[in-house]
Specification:
It holds the Pfam family Sigma70_r2. The chain is mainly α. It contains nine helices and no strands. It has two domains: about 5-90, Rna Polymerase Sigma Factor, Chain: A (Orthogonal Bundle); about 110-195, Arc Repressor Mutant, subunit A (Orthogonal Bundle), CATH 1.10.10.10.
Length: about 200
């Protein structure tokens, strides 16, 4: 299904919700719940907590939907609500996110995952764990705007335009932030890749 046809479906469902059809919102939740839980999971690493925050984000979205004017795609609007809900949750708990389990296979730009799967030896397992740890720690140390931009691109697969909408900044700024985030991670993992 193309993003245009999904956007058209979303638009019709949003109009139905705005006209009082609560079941239309259930369809939107079904369409996006896994993506939203995955997105929140990059901020809050406990799955039960992530599901609670996702539910809270959907409740906020439902309550705000009468004011949704369709200036951006529905899912872009929903992602923004989910990110803000996750951030507010963390702030209210007085904490930063704990370590995230970044799967090296998800971090496609590293390009080393095919090497890591060649031999399932204890040495390679240790190497993979070390690489994941370095990526995770580097990601956690990045300034928030770099971390969010990279997370939306690499883990959520969003386009630069959609990320610009979510982060409320120009596309050029998004490209710069993603480049700087990748550069920081590449610099940290380079010594490991030379082994």
């Amino acid at each position: 299904m193309s993003s245009e046809s999904q956007a058209a479906i979303d638009k019709r469902l949003v109009q139905r919700v705005q006209a009082g059809d609560k079941q239309a919102f259930d369809l939107l939740v079904k369409q996006y719940q896994h993506k939203i839980i995955g997105l929140i999971g990059r901020y809050v690493y406990d799955s039960h907590e992530a599901m609670d925050i996702a539910q809270e984000a959907f409740i906020k979205a439902y309550r705000a939907l009468p004011g949704f004017r369709g200036e951006s795609a529905f899912y872009t609007w929903l992602y923004r609500i989910a990110i803000n809900t996750a951030k507010n949750h963390l702030v209210s708990r007085g904490r930063r996110p704990p370590d995230v389990d970044v799967d090296v296979n998800d971090a496609q730009y590293i390009g080393a995952d095919s090497q890591l799967r060649d031999l399932d030896t204890p040495e390679n397992a240790l190497y993979r764990e070390e690489l994941e740890r370095v990526v995770r720690e580097t990601l956690d140390r990045l300034p928030e705007e770099l971390r969010v931009a990279l997370t939306l691109r690499e883990f959520e697969g969003m386009s630069y335009e959609d990320i610009a909408n979510v982060m409320d900044c120009p596309v050029g700024t998004v490209r710069s932030r993603i480049f700087r985030a990748r550069e920081a991670i590449d610099k940290e993992i380079a010594p490991l890749l030379e082994k």
